[in-house]
Structure formats: structure tokens, C-alpha cells
Fold:
Amino acid sequence: MLSCKDSTPLRFLRKYSLFALSALFILPTLCTPLLAWEKALAPYPFHFPADHGSHPQYQTEWWYLTGRLTTPQNRHFGYQFTIFRQGLIEKPDPAAASPWQVRDLYILHCALSDIDSGKFYQHQDISRAGPELAGARQDGMQTWVKGSRLVWDESAKVLQLKVASPEYQIELELKPSYPPILHGNRGLSAKGSLPGQASHYYSWPRLQGRGELRLREETFPVTSLSWLDREFATNQLGQNQAGWDWFALHFDDGQALMLYRMRLKNGGQDDTSSGTWIFADGSSRHLTNKDFTLQPKKPWRSPQSGAEYPLNWQITLQQPQPLTFAVSALLDSQEMRTGATTLANYWEGAVTVNGRRLEGSPISGHGYLEMTGYDQALEALQKK
Structure:
């Protein structure tokens, strides 16, 4: 997944009344350019499991899971779970440290797509890092917002997920099939042409496990194939960019693909668009803007936001093998409306994959698609 939906802290504060009092104290800091946040300028020396944890020297980061849940009766659900950390105070005063100091905001976005019934459930929350309200360790993956959390158990080599929303709850234990995949240039993933318009980005594309889904009055044992994305940055979009289209796809033969198109305001594709092809054994190949083409199809207009999203796509790859396939939304209505947190509507949903290789053999799979900047260009992420 790409950048946080809105990196202007003032928008969070004026919309979310919980932090109104705190705003009186941190407003002078927020109105001053935050020049000392570290930027993603060079390949990052990742060391795991420590780098699964938080990186507070960067202004924005996220822990991001998407995947499929399957019941014993072969009923399918898609799910999305994201925790964002948004830095507010670049250099907090240690002498003024307090459990209630609002150095960071933690934002939760989660959704469940019930494919068979055609229903979409979404939930959002936001919290400061007060005592046990929200937070993230720096020396390993343990991040939480109230009752929802994501934890990496290094001894068991298991990722533990708990999602607590009003309409559904998920508990999963997931095991990675291979070590983390670094995107771009050894984890430096360019989003724009200027220095610092980038993130440090890695994924666990293939997480397999089982757990339980509770949906209203029903409880289902489930198996899951999931995808974890981790990014941290102090990044901005270019002035000519509106948003992005991002794909995380699992193929049935064990291979996987991450692609993103940085979309220009004129509808074109920025040259920094790129991707990663992941082979079944966990080896990978970086894809440049010249290695693939994306053709959007089937426009759908949200009755809530009025934004129009292309729900079907044709993707053609030149590398690492000639391949053409279609990506199609499993539900039309999978728009995240985030007026209580990040104030940026976006489409995030479960998709299916069908196509053919050059020699004619079929290829199929499933995954997730995210589309941002269709409701309005993400001006807040642009360098001023």
C-alpha cells in the first residue's frame, strides 16, 4: 500500500473533537514547517524483526493487511486492516513527556467484504497514544488501536491479528512463506521525481493461516491467504499527481505481484510507477514503468461520495514473462469513507484475476485493489 490518506494533522484535529483540547497546545508546532523529519532518500538497511516495529523519526507509517478468508463451506470474504501512525510533534520535549502527550495519532481503517451476500462493512477509529489506547513498539511488531492489534511473535514465527469492530471481529494466526520482500531499490520505493518523494517499503506477500470470523450472530472458522505491507516515510506527492492505483495479487500457482500506478491529474501514468514480481520461492524482480501497462475499465460511481472508480482493469506485463490478465472487483461498493479520521474517500476492495500467458496457458488468482484521488486530488500530500 502507498502513502497515508492525508498527512495534514490539522485536518484530523479540527474534525475529531477528542483532540480539540490538545490542539490548543500543539497548534504552534503544526503551523511551523516540519523540516527535521527524516525522509526516504536512500536504500534503508532493514534488520528484522526490529524493523517490523515503529520508526518515529519518519512522520508517517502504516501496518497494512489485506486478504481472503474462506470457511469450510467455501464461503469467501475479503478483509482489509490498516493502522496508520501520523507524527504531530517532530521534536517532543522530554521534560514535558506524559502518557497523554499527543506526539502521534494512530488511525484504524478496517473493512470486511462478504462476497456471497454482496455486503460491505467498514470501521474507522482514531486515538492518541495514551495509556493503552494506541501505540506501536519500536523493537518489533506490536501495534494497536484500542481493541484491534497486530503482533509478530518472533519465537513462534507467527503474525497475530485481532480486529474489533462493531459489526464483525476477526482473529487470525498467519505464517509467512518466505522472508520479507523489499520493493524498489533495496526498499526505497519512489513515488515522485524529487528527492524524498519516496518511502521505505517492504511486504510479506504470502501469509497463510487460520482463525475465526464473527459476523453479527454468526461465527465461522476460516483459513486465510493474506498480504502484509509496511511503509514509513516523510513523503509528498508531486504537484501534478492526483493519487494512485495499487494492486496486491496472489496467483494460484504461488506467485504474486505488487503494482502501483502514480496517477497524474491529466489521467496519465507517472514514470515513477513500478512494481515487484514475486516468484513462488520468494525471489523477486523489480518492475519499472516500462515493464507493464494498465488499462482501466468499467467505471462505477459511488452513490455516497459521487467519486467514479474503474472497477475492472486489464494488465499487461512484459517482464518477467509476457502476460495479460484482467482484474475485476468482486463487489462494486467497496468504498472507504473516512470522514471521522482522514477525510479522504478511497476504494479498497477484493478482486479476482483471470488471464493467459503468451503461450496460452491460463493464470488465475485473487487479491486487493486500492484507488485514491478519485474523490479529490490528494493536495495535502503535495510538497508546498
Summary: The chain has one domain: 9-381.
